[in-house]
Write a structure and sequence with these properties.
Blueprint: H1 2-28, H2 49-52, H3 61-84, E1 91-94, E2 102-105, H4 106-118, E3 123-132, E4 137-145, H5 151-170, E5 177-183
């Protein structure tokens, strides 16, 4: 739903900006201005001195300007957070074989994946987050590797082990996964 609202808002803002910018450009290039247009011709400024200072001396003017700008900033921040936030998968539809299907909680699969990866040799700690839709979730993992562990081997073991088990147990054809590997900090070793 957020994507739909995002696209509609972006389309409306884009159309308004294109219409205003195109009309200002056309009038600036010499096209005749319509009777309802704010400015008369190509040499007219956007805001002249009288328009710019009309309400400056009124007591309500600056608080209203600041309030409107604050509301616009808050709306833009809300929009940014809504767009950047990754939706967590609440449940995954699993084919139970009887034609009915079953719903597996996303957090349960996250916990099972994390526990299996934590038991893997060379992994100090694993965090798992499932995003996406019911029928096609995506996994995002952060693995904290122990010192001196080959990242390629750890990734291969993860792919052939925990991810294959999760895919097989849920009946998913694919489970796209983004893995971030980090090394555990350790003290330097003394060589003698």
């Amino acid at each position: 739903m957020i994507k739909g609202v995002n696209r509609v808002l972006l389309a409306l803002v884009g159309l308004v900006l294109i219409a205003l910018g195109g009309s200002v450009l056309a009038i600036g290039l010499g096209a005749p201005a319509p009777s309802w247009w704010l400015h008369d011709g190509r040499h007219d400024v956007l805001l002249d001195d009288s328009e710019r200072t009309r309400w400056r001396d009124q007591g309500w003017w600056w608080p209203v300007v600041i309030a409107v700008l604050a509301v616009l900033v808050l709306l833009c921040l809300w929009w940014l957070v809504a767009v950047m936030r990754r939706r967590r998968t609440s449940e995954i539809l699993v084919d139970s074989g009887d034609g009915e299907g079953a719903a597996l909680r996303g957090r349960a699969l996250e916990q099972a994946l994390a526990e299996e990866v934590n038991r893997q040799d060379g992994v100090a700690r694993a965090r798992v987050l499932l995003t996406g839709r019911h029928g096609g979730p995506r996994a995002r993992m952060v693995l904290l590797l122990e010192p001196h562990v080959d990242p390629g081997t750890a990734l291969d073991t993860l792919t052939t082990g925990a991810l294959t088990h999760a895919r097989d147990s849920t009946g998913l054809a694919t489970l796209p996964t983004e893995v971030h590997l980090r090394a555990e900090k350790h003290r330097p070793e003394r060589v003698t």
